[in-house]
Please model this.
Amino acid sequence: MAIFKKESRKPRHSSMNDAWVMLDGGFAKRNCTILDLSAGGARLQLAEAGPIGNHLSLAITRDVRKATRCRVVWRKASVVGVEFI
Model:
C-alpha cells in the first residue's frame, strides 16, 4: 500500500474584500471579491463573466501601481484560484 504525504498548505484567511483584476497589462480592469487569502495566493470571485488569461494582476487597493502579479491555478465558473508570483 502506498502512503501519500499530504501537501502542506499555507493557512488561508476568509475575506470579503473588494479588489480589481487587471488583464492585458492593465488595460482591462474588472471588479472582483477576494473570498480567501494566504501568503501564496487567493481565491477570487469575478464580478463579470468573461475570459481571462493565465496571468493577471490583482490590486487590493485603488492604487493599481501596487498590483501583485498572479498566475491562474484553477477556474470554476466565476471563481478562480491564483498564485502570487
The two ends are 37 Å apart (CA to CA). Residues 44 and 80 are 5 Å apart (CA to CA). Residues 13-84 form a domain with the Thrombin, subunit H fold (CATH 2.40.10.220).
